[in-house]
Structures are given as C-alpha cells and as structure tokens.
Amino acid sequence: MLLFSVVTTVRTSHGPSAAPNPAANHHHPSGDSSELQALRQQCEQLNLESGRDKAMIDGLLRERDFYFNKLRDIEILCQENQNSLMVKDVLDILYATDEGFAAPDCAEPQEF
C-alpha cells in the first residue's frame, strides 16, 4: 500500500511576471524598410486624392445649391402669376418627373 506519492512539476515559465523579450521579437528583413516607404507614399497619394475629391464635392454642392435657388425663385414667380398659359407650361416643366421617380406630396404629412 502506497501512503505518499511524489509529484514532480516542471515550470516552463516564471509566472505572470515573465514577459517575452520585445527585442528578441524584432526582426528587420531587408524588405521592411522599402515596404514601409511604399506604404507611406501610397498613404500620401491617397490623402492628396481625398483632398481633391473633397474640393470637387464642395464645388458640386455649391453649384447644386445655386441652381436649386434659381429654380426656386422661378417657381415662386410662376406661382404668383398662374393665370398665364406660358407660366402654366413652365410650372408643368418644373414639376415634371423622370419615369420611375415620384416627387413627395407636400400636402400629406411625412412619417419617418
């Protein structure tokens, strides 16, 4: 009959305070530097393109607002003078929609 057993434990680390050596994990193959340089150039190029795109979008938004305001002024002028046949034709053109597009009816409340 065996009363005592011997247990042997082999530790592979020194507990929670053991941390990998960061210097041991830094390998610098010769391609890393050139790859990093290429990525930096790509990032710079994308930033330039993004800036140009933002400027173009700003210009398009200003142009859209300009023409919208012109059309709105024409609409108001036409609504004040609806007795003329030509004004009615202009309003028909302003309110015409493309096939498949329906303008919202302003008389009905919109639910979101």
Automatic annotation (TrEMBL):
Residues 13-24 have a biased composition (Low complexity). Pfam families: EB1. Keywords: Cytoplasm, Cytoskeleton, Microtubule. Residues 35-103 form the EB1 C-terminal domain. GO terms for molecular function: microtubule binding. The keyword Cytoplasm applies. It is found in: Cytoplasm, Cytoskeleton. One of its GO terms (cellular component) is microtubule. This is Microtubule-associated protein RP/EB family member. Residues 12-37 are annotated as: Disordered. InterPro entries: EB1_C, EB1_C_sf, MAPRE.
